[in-house]
Amino acid sequence: MPTDDPSTHEWPGDWLRGVLAVCVLRVLADGPTYGYALGVRLAEAGLGTVKGGTLYPALTRLEQAGLLDVEWRAGEAGPGRKYYSLTDAGRAELRRSATRWARFAGLTTRLVADASTGTDDDAPALTGRPPT
User: Residue ranges of the Transcription regulator PadR N-terminal domain (predicted)?
Assistant: First the structure.
């Protein structure tokens, strides 16, 4: 049953996979952090629980693409943690991806707007062309 708490939303997996990289880059723009804390921030932002089997492979792909730096840091009361931070290429990719995602999200919102409310006389006609 849905709740008003955005951290408990369960979004379709294909939606999450589509937006996860840009969301991870955005969280890391605030500064270096480790995987668990990153997952908490994503949940607090409304993505719901991002399982480790989804998050850590995404972090590895971003690292391999040269978008993240990784540093092991000693733990305060336990084992060391792997901290992730953006590279210059990661910051540039965040800007590109955020712009593209915003355009895509706006387009899809306009496309499906009338379906979510039943009717929407203000929705643009479907022309097969992007809005101008």
Answer: 24-95
The structure's pTM equals 0.77
Instruction: Give tens-digit pLDDT for 119-128.
Output: 445 544 544 4
Starting from the edge strand earliest in sequence, which strands make up the sheet with 81-86, in order? 33-34, 81-86, 68-73
Give the span between the Cα atoms of 23 and 98, in whole angstroms. 9
Give Cβ neighbours of residue 54 (< 8 Å, ≥ 6 apart): 13, 16, 17, 20
Upper half-sphere CA count for residue 127 (Cβ side, 13 Å)? 8
Q: Is the dihedral of CA 77, 75, 45, 20 positive or negative?
A: negative
Q: Is 47 within a domain?
A: yes
Q: Is the dihedral of CA 16, 91, 45, 98 positive or negative?
A: negative
Contacts of 2 (CB under 8 A, 6+ apart): 9
Give the structural domain span for 34.
Answer: 6-111
